[in-house]
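Run log, item B.
One chain of 199 residues. Sequence copied directly from the ordering sheet:
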Amino acid sequence: MRVRNESSDGFTLIELLVVIAIIAVLLRLVFPVFQGVQDRAKKVQAKNDLTQIVTAVNAFYTEYGRYPVDSTITTDAGATFGAGSTSSQALFDTLRGKSTTLNTRQIVFISPPEDSTQPTPKGKIGSDGQFHDPWGTAYVVRMDANYDNNVDNAYTDGSAGGDSSNSYALRIGVIAWSLGKDGSKAPSFKNSDDVISWQ
């Protein structure tokens, strides 16, 4: 009697290793593309948030005839809130109708998502009361506190526009910006990852 040797229909170890190596190479090629798409989506989200912030501050101005800052603040630098400046909690409490000190009618001008379980949630108001960008850093907001129809530009080298005769000041009442993925303000807006409301 002869024993018949049947061939196996499975993969050999070498074939499996080759397939795994090919998948690893493909993932290495696709990951940077995916990360780039994700970064662009975060920048778009930041730009939308900044537009909402500026719209909310301007709506407050339209309603009350003043910006949502204490009357003792008389400089644009003093009316700068967020990362690297005074906390923006009071500003967002006012714009969200949670504080009646300046917003006596408790009008809700902005209503971003909130996560009070985290101090710096991405794209939400955190337990610190500040509105954070998609990377987890508080948005920065600056208003025309001296009412001279100019706001000091965050970038005084001209890289983000403005009037060159006046430290590149912007002829608008409020600006807002995100420090971007690296979480720090670049000395120049050009070639930085910062996101701004005025361009």
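Observations after the first pass:
- Residues 13-196 form one domain.
- The chain has a mean pLDDT of 91.
Flagged for discussion on Thursday.
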